[in-house]
Amino acid sequence: HKVGAVATKNITSTRLRSERTTQVDEDAENKRKEHQKELAAKKQKEGLARFSEATGDKNGAEVKKFKRFESYKRDNQLPLKVKNLEVVVDSRNSTVILPIMGRPVPFHINTIKNASKSDENDFSFLRINFLSPGQGVGRKDDQPFEDASAHFVRSLTFRSSDGERYSEIATQISNMKRDAVKKEQEKKDLEDVIEQDKLIEIRNRRPAVLDNVYIRPAMEGKRVPGK
What we know:
By secondary structure, the protein is of the alpha+beta class. Helices cover 27% and strands 19% of the residues. The chain has a domain at 76-136 and 152-192: Roll (PH-domain like). It has two helices and eight strands. The strands form three sheets. Strands 3-4-5 form a three-stranded antiparallel sheet, covered by helices on one side. It has a three-stranded antiparallel sheet with strand order 6-7-8, with helices on one face. Strands 1-2 form a two-stranded antiparallel sheet.
């Protein structure tokens, strides 16, 4: 009597079912680790691309890069009120237009530090301070400049007998500056946010929930289960 051959696919390297299960778990864990390495390399590449605008010093510290701000591409985009050669606040383009030497000169809000109004005798004065190198050592004063050794206009002062209008202009500039700082901060906060896929509503089955979940301390003295 001849014994039939045994198929090689039925031969296992282990005898116990638990040992085979452990082997499968190890293979899955190794695949998971390899996938995590791929994801880490991908995120690192994306991070380097996202922060490529910033440069670093020899110690690896982040150094801010000079940024250009453009208020208008053409002269005909300026508000019509600039023909009167007066101070004009253009909130839509985040710009303050000042009359200098008989010409309207636009200044982006990111080049302005602050604005204030004061009164002296029968006149009111509007003082606009600009950002320039060497103004301070705080975090807000470390804005880089294209050429820090160049000459800078640190402030301009205008005089008028209409104090109410200068008060309104100073308030508009302050509000515009506040909104610009807030927008820049929100932009920085979103740099580390990971984009996620759109949520898909579950329609054909009951959504997964955690039953018998309680809030501690109980609201209004009642122990009410939630989901």
